[in-house]
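Sequence in, structure out. Go.
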Amino acid sequence: MHKSTNWNILITGAAGFIGTSLVKMLIQKDMPFKSVIGTDVRPQIPITHHKYHFIHLDICDPDLGQFFKKHQITHVVHLASIVTPGKKSNREFEYKVDVLGTQNVLKACVENNVQQIILTSSGAAYGYHADNPDWLSENDAIRGNYEFPYSHHKKLVEEELVRYQKSSPQLKQLILRPGTILGEKVNNQITDLFKKKVIIGIKGSKSPFVFIWDEDVVEIIYQGLIQEKAGAYNLAGDGCVSLKEISSLLKKNYLPIPATALKFALSVLKKFHLTQYGPEQINFLQFRPVLDNKKLKTEFGFTPRFSSKECFLEYQKHSSL
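Output:
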């Protein structure tokens, strides 16, 4: 009997795109586990399988530890986070979910002798900084940016993980840091940039993007789970694509604007609620973290099916850009 037949897997954020896709993959592979439980505060599309159960649950629930105990959770895939904030969202709420929620999950893991947690961090955890190396490896500092809540929160989460590595080394941690995830049905703040009639860039900056296909992310999570892998890995296809090159692929005009002029324009437009972007978005475009995927290919043993450019072209096929 394979050891995984005694596992009870918990997937937080299971109603999200990656979570739902992971559940479907587990079902497709006939789930060699005792049970899989998906949780989310949002409803999940109906998925029927005798080993799968979806339960409405907030990861900030103070009784989360009791939930783990009741369901004898052995492994956790922690996907719950605020990636694309809603119009009524605010920083305090995002911090509660991203940081306090993750702290609650980690506490429940240790209290209930969970064997492994797989957590999706982000390339944004490295931060958007002028002195970032051309290619960021997993050994580079996690600095985040306070002005970007998502980036800052991922930094805080990774700092918490370091503390748990020291205090609770028995809990295996697999930390995944994806670049921009693209897929047939993916929509996020970055894909919104590509839908504009004119692609605005920063003069003197290439604004490089690294992409990875959503199905690859799900496969990496699955392999990491089955093989109980640990460590931190960047998730990205080979190479990167500049914003000017993306504009060319989209057959759209590319307009590079000096950083100071664009910062002023965004300040005015944001003040009058004429744009969703503020002056802090300058760093988001100017100093994009470019992820080296060498460790993913050599140590994890996974080669993404598409390069970053191929990934974008595949996305373009299925989108209405």
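Check: Residues 91-111 form the longest helix (21 residues). The chain has one domain: 3-181+211-238+289-306.
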